[in-house]
Design a protein that fits this description.
This protein is an alpha/beta fold. The chain has 20 helices and 19 strands. Strands 2-1-3-4-5-6 form a 6-stranded mixed β-sheet. Helix 17 packs across helix 18. It is globular, with a radius of gyration of 25 Å. The termini are far apart.
Length: 621
């Protein structure tokens, strides 16, 4: 019988104790004494969020295929358990063996969202591991970071020994082999190991690089401190999706996850070139899994999990070349097993709506458009590639198909946005509502239509054409939301319109973390030491405490947010080669801000972004 780390008394006193007991369906059990390397995979958020993340499931599967490696998991304890562990000096433990993770060889932390940065420190603190790399000894685990946030690793660089740039399926085996070889030497030295690890493609060791600044606070130089350490770190890419590891028996959580369903990743990357979208750039080139492989995965996943829903994972599912055939297969297989199908990231056209009508309860569901901007001018600026005719045509098809609920997603604060662009958002919503009443005869209406418009505030991200863009103050963002809200009230069909907007304070802080440098790390450390974590959860976020942290550390938030970057400024992330060249980003930035014109997608024309060097996916098709 496996012994749990937490006592019954503690488990009975905390919310959702099943978060901490492990032993889920399809979890891997090995003898930890029979392996050469113990790895703990960490998602720095609550269990229900972390268990929804496909990337951890893939790496968990891949690492545990090795007989000499045991990969276990840990998630951020909820504040109730955090308090108990601090009071009783209990170390953070893994789910599989229920043993302290400070005794592991490596801890890998996936970084999906900037507002989880304080949770990195929560995990290390509860694990009783020094928070900064330079204070760790050879007795401490090697702390590794990965995920989309590491494309600017500098605000969190001091907390990590290694940051993995790219897709995790490629370089971990080489890192494990090196560690096992070095760790068994009697003269094992942590610094020597890290220096050797820095030569493995995709691995960035922050302690081996030095940054200097100009008087105006911008970066003067960013260089390795040794000649044998690479000046540039190359993003790692899976070149053949059909042979890369994939979990056909994924973990099934005890507590209902945020996305409680089976997931089928159909492709990576995107052929679209939306200028605001980091994922569309850093996951290039577009690479598809074959229909044959996906059919096999779907059958095995449904058989091994018992999930009652399967979802397609992709940045733009409509662009998968064999989508009709895949959908036909899934409908047949899922109807047989009484499993629902979730189809996110579809363009709303006649084909998509026909498919959705077969797999959704139309009366309960809504169709979703993401115009991102209300005016055609702004959609051209951001290279959305969506015209008003596309939007209205899709809405009309949806209304004729029986839907009366439409969700529209937009961004405010985009480069070059004017008040007319803001007002165009509710005007577009009103036109769609009017279209419903024009299209659907009164006797066929389920009720009045519901048009829900949601706006987030734009955050410029590294490795996008908009990485040079400025941001605004929280008050300015809220003013823009007010312009939308006031204009909505003036529309003829305003009773059919709903409007929601994102938190402005969180947006500004996210922008600082997204494009900050190493000086921001002191602020994150100060904030955690003064009680901030779970900042991604509204009930725990405090802008006042963050302002206090910036003031205490002498770091100016406005420096990172309120200025448009000079076109030749050295960015904190310029040492990373993502395959897409900085010249391409410059060209797209100028095309957006000076010319306001679109760039064709990768299937229609090659735009010489640089990803041809990977020699895979759409680049060779």
């Amino acid at each position: 019988m496996r012994k749990l780390f937490l006592s019954d008394e503690i488990l009975m006193s905390v919310e959702k104790s099943a978060r901490y007991i492990g032993n889920e369906v399809n979890s891997v059990m090995k003898d930890p004494n029979a392996v050469s390397l113990r790895f703990c995979m960490c998602f720095p958020d609550v269990y229900e969020v972390g268990m929804s993340h496909l990337g951890i499931q893939i790496l968990y599967e891949m690492m545990n295929r090795r007989e000499d490696v045991y990969c276990e998991r840990v998630y951020s304890p909820w504040p109730d358990l955090h308090k108990i562990m601090k009071e009783r000096n209990l170390p953070l433990f893994s789910l599989e063996t229920q043993e302290p993770i400070k005794e592991f060889d490596m801890i890998g932390i996936t970084l999906q969202y900037e507002m989880c940065y304080t949770n990195i420190l929560q995990v290390l603190d509860l694990a009783q591991i020094p928070l900064v790399s330079k204070e760790r000894t050879k007795k401490d685990p090697i702390i590794i970071g990965g995920g989309p946030c590491v494309y600017n690793p500098e605000p969190i660089a001091p907390f990590f020994d290694i940051l993995y740039i790219g897709e995790g399926e490629t370089s971990y085996d080489a890192l494990f082999d090196l560690y096992i070889s070095e760790r068994n030497k009697p003269d094992y030295d942590r610094e020597s190991f890290l220096r050797k690890a820095s030569k493995i493609p995709g691995l960035y060791v922050p302690s081996l690089y030095e940054v200097t600044y100009k008087e105006d606070k911008t970066i003067e130089s960013f260089m390795p401190i040794y000649e044998d350490v690479p000046k540039t770190v190359l993003r790692q890419v899976v070149t053949d999706m059909d042979v890369s590891p994939y979990p056909t028996a994924p973990l099934v959580p005890f507590v209902q996850a945020i996305q409680d369903r089976a997931v089928l990743e159909i492709q990576r990357g995107c052929i679209r070139g939306c200028r605001f979208c980091q994922a569309g750039m850093i996951y290039r080139p577009n690479r598809e899994r074959s229909l044959k492989v996906l059919k096999g995965y779907a059958e095995k996943i449904l058989a091994s999990t018992g999930h009652d829903e399967i979802s397609l994972s992709s940045l733009s599912s409509s662009d998968y070349t064999e989508l009709p055939e895949l959908i036909d297969f899934l409908i047949e297989a899922c109807n047989k097993e009484k499993v629902n199908i979730s189809l996110p990231s579809l363009r709303i056209d006649a084909f998509s709506l026909d498919v959705m009508s077969k797999v959704q309860d139309i009366k309960k569901s809504s169709v979703t458009f993401a115009p991102e901007a209300g005016s055609q001018r702004m959609r051209n600026v951001i290279n959305k590639g969506l015209t008003v005719d596309d939007i209205m045509g899709g809405a009309k098809e949806a209304f004729l198909g029986g839907w009366n609920k439409v969700k529209l997603y937009f961004m405010l604060g985009l480069p070059g946005e004017t008040e007319e662009d803001m007002k165009a958002i509710p005007i577009l919503g009103n036109e769609i509502a009017a279209l419903y009443y024009e299209t659907v005869p009164k006797e066929n209406r389920i009720g009045k239509c519901q048009i829900t418009m949601s706006t987030s505030f734009f955050v410029p991200k590294p490795f996008t054409p908009f990485q040079w863009a400025r941001m605004y103050t929280p008050d300015e963002y809220l003013h823009r939301a007010k312009v939308v809200n006031d204009t909505m009230k003036e529309q003829l069909n305003h009773k059919s319109l709903r409007y929601q907007w994102h938190h402005a304070d969180v947006t500004v802080l996210e922008g600082v973390f997204a494009r900050g440098d190493r000086r921001v790390a002191d602020v994150i450390l100060y904030a955690y030491e003064h009680g901030q974590f779970f900042d991604a959860w509204g009930e725990f976020f405090s802008m006042e405490k963050w302002i206090e942290a910036f003031d205490a550390c002498g770091v100016d938030m406005d420096f990172y947010t309120m200025r448009e970057r000079d076109i030749d400024e050295i960015f904190p992330w310029d040492f990373i080669d993502v395959g897409v060249t900085k010249e391409f980003f410059k060209r797209e930035w100028l095309r957006a801000t000076k010319e306001e014109r679109i760039t064709k997608n990768c299937r229609d024309a090659c735009n010489a972004c640089g990803c041809m060097t990977y020699n895979c996916g759409i680049c060779i098709r």
